[in-house]
């Protein structure tokens, strides 16, 4: 297995970087552009495993897509809600967004569509979404366990109507339903039963739908109403840089007491993970923002924090990886749902921090990390891009840290290590 050795940096980092487009926005834009009538152009689109699997699925469904990776541009020839393919065998890799959004998309079709992913994707929750699709008219044939991939969706359009949906393990199933609902045969009302995790991503969904001309009426935190007959408008859309993937570069400034500017990402971002800036500020960093960049300057000494990360849970690994350098413990709360991601992320962070000699307490839905000296080690990444990207930052402070299987960053950030090393050379 490949590894990458991270060189410790015995000076503060001082760099300006550019981060590729957001995975979440690229995949949402691909879906709604596929449903719009006519050509949409996505600028600064992400090219990575998650978005390429997504684009390929859309294309297999008979909606033409032109990829231009050199210009970070994708053209989608939307078919106005029609799904031309009557049959398709679709593969989503480990992309949770593709798994959930494409399953919902095929429910609008008229045919049979098989979906599968890598072994870990077969363990990630799909069942609550699929139950709604079944109530809305689809028949689903599971090859293995009920509620999990692989399965075939037999559809003849989505009826719409009133549904209850659990969203305590993932918000992506709700986002998927919201985005297809305008194309249902009748108005749709979705009532979220109990807790809704990762709420900021649902806000992002509603915002992107509005950007393409469709309104979601939200009543309280838990009820969503979508009028049938609304149509997405094809358009030019510029994808924001990925705020979650920017977190590693900001974290590098934070731990080295240096400065990192991320171009074209601002505090006005519609991505919830822009709140990483607030987290770093509470830990002692200084934040400078303008209408075209954000800059973080790290303090001499980072401070500990006790924080609910339910809404920004892709940043748990980033915070975990810099936690040992704080002046007091770091407690990360309310993140049980990260046990269902690329890997069980609570377990993975705890295991790898302990491998580095750090004292960590693990609970069902939280972890507590004690600052302390680090013993270098080779970090296991568990096919999880965020393990590799986050623990590379730890390596800037401690000589001898090695990241195993660095190629796993291809999921959302194929040239992460190239850009990371370019940051160190500035
Ligand atoms: O909707 C989205 O684009 C995402 C929602 C979040 O997942 P959950 O809703 O499963 O927490 C997040 O972790 C993931 O990276 C992207
Ligand atoms: C959880 C993530 O991805 P997915 O879209 O596969 O859920 C992630 O990118 O951190």
Descriptive report:
The strands form six sheets. A four-stranded mixed beta sheet has the order 2-15-17-16. Strands 4-5-3-14 form a four-stranded mixed beta sheet, with helices on one face. Strands 6-7-9-8 form a four-stranded mixed beta sheet, covered by helices on one side. By secondary structure, the chain is an alpha/beta fold. The protein is globular and about 60 Å long. The protein has twelve helices and 23 strands. The model has no long low-confidence stretch (mean pLDDT 98). Helix 1 packs parallel to helix 3 (96-107), helix 7 runs parallel beside helix 11 and helix 9 packs parallel to helix 10 (345-355). Helices cover 30% and strands 25% of the residues. Residues 94-97, 314, 341, 386, 412 line the site of phosphoenolpyruvate. InterPro entries: Enolpyruvate_Tfrase_dom (IPR001986), Enolpyruvate_Tfrase_sf (IPR036968), EPSP_synthase (IPR006264), EPSP_synthase_CS (IPR023193), RNA3'P_cycl/enolpyr_Trfase_a/b (IPR013792). Catalyzes the transfer of the enolpyruvyl moiety of phosphoenolpyruvate (PEP) to the 5-hydroxyl of shikimate-3-phosphate (S3P) to produce enolpyruvyl shikimate-3-phosphate and inorganic phosphate. Its EC number is 2.5.1.19.
β-strand amount: 15-25%
For the termini, the CA-CA separation is: 30 Å
Major β-sheet profile: 4 strands, mixed
Radius of gyration: 21 Å
Note the total helix count.
12
Ions, cofactors and other bound molecules: shikimate-3-phosphate, phosphoenolpyruvate
Mean pLDDT: 98
Query: How much helical structure, as a percent, in the residues?
Result: 25-40%
Structural class: alpha/beta
Annotation, overall tally of beta strands:
23
- For the largest sheet, list the strands in their spatial order: 2-15-17-16
Coarse morphology: globular
Question: Any low-confidence stretches, pLDDT <50, length ≥5?
Answer: none
